[in-house]
Amino acid sequence: MKKKIITTVLTLAFTLVLCATLFACDKKGDDGKINYAIDNSFIVLERNVGNALVFSPVTNATRDENGEVTNGNNLNCEYGVILYVGMGVEPERYSYLATALAKQGYLVVIPQLDNNLAYTHYQAEEKAFETYGNVKFFIAGHSFEGGASAIRRTSENKDKVMGTVLFAPVGSRHKLLDENGEPVKDNDEVEIYVSDNLLDCSLPVLLVEADNDKVRTKEQSDNAKARLKDGYVSKVVQNGNHTAFAQIDVEDDLPIKFLPNFTDDVNATTIEQKNAQRIETCNVVLAFLRSVVLG
User: Fold this and answer.
1) Can you list the residues of the chain whose pLDDT is less than 70?
2) Count of CB atoms within 10 A of residue 288's CB?
3) Helix, strand, coil percentages, rounded to 5, for the chain
4) Which listed residue, 15, 74, 111, 162, has the most CB atoms within 10 A of its CB?
5) In sequence order, which residues have a C-beta less than 8 Å from that of residue 112 and are 6 or more positions away?
6) pLDDT, tens only, 7-29
C-alpha cells in the first residue's frame, strides 16, 4: 500500500511538472491557423475514434463532474503524429506524450490493433491519412512492433509523411506481396522478404534512445541505426530505460511479464528518473517537430 501511495504521489508530481514545463498561451494566427512557432497550451480532448485513440486540441471545452474534458470544438490542426505502440503496450500508456503534443496544436492518433501488435497486424493502408486528409503527419513508433511499423509506414508513404520519430526501435522485414496480396516467390519457390529501412528516404528522422536500455541488444540497436540514412537526429536520454518511453513504472505494468530483460529494464531506473525521462522525451520530440515544421 505504501508503495502505491508513493507511486501515486510521484506520478501527480510528474504531471504537475510536465504541465508547468509546457504551459503558455494558446494562440492562432490572423488566418485562424495554429501558430506552431510559439508555446501553446490548448485543452486536449482524448477519445476513441474508429480504431484509434485520438488526442485533439480543442476550444470551448466542456467537462464532466470530475473535471474531465468530454467535448469541445476541434482546432484546425495543420500537423499531426501517428504513433505506433511497443509490443503489447496499451495506447493509453503513451498519453503523457500524446497530450503534450496535442497541447501544442498537433493532432495525435494512436492506432488500436489486435493485441496491441502494430507490426504483426500491420495494415496496408493507414486510416488516419484518409480520415484526417488535411493534416500533414509525422510517423512515430516505439520498440519492436511500433518502431518497425514506423519505419515501414514511412518507407511506403514518403509523399504523405513529414518525418519520423523512433523510440528505441527494432527493425523488421515483411513478405513481398503481389497486386493480389499473395506472397511473391523466387525461382526456387521461396517467399521473398523485404527488409524495412529508410536508406533512400530524405525525410527528417529523430532517433531517441535510453542509456539504460535492458530490452534491446547492442546488435538490435546497431541494426536499427543501419536502416536509417545518414544525417538523422540522435538523442540518448541519460538515466533512461526502454519501457519508460511508455508509462510503465513497475513490473505489474509490463505487457510481457516474466522475461528477464523486461524485468531488468523496468527496474533499471527509479520512478523519478522515469518521469524525468518522459519530460525530456516530450521536449526533444516537440523541438524536433517544430524544427521541421518551421524549416
Assistant:
1) 1-32
2) 20
3) 35, 25, 40
4) 111
5) 48, 51, 52, 53, 91
6) 544 454 454 444 444 444 455 54
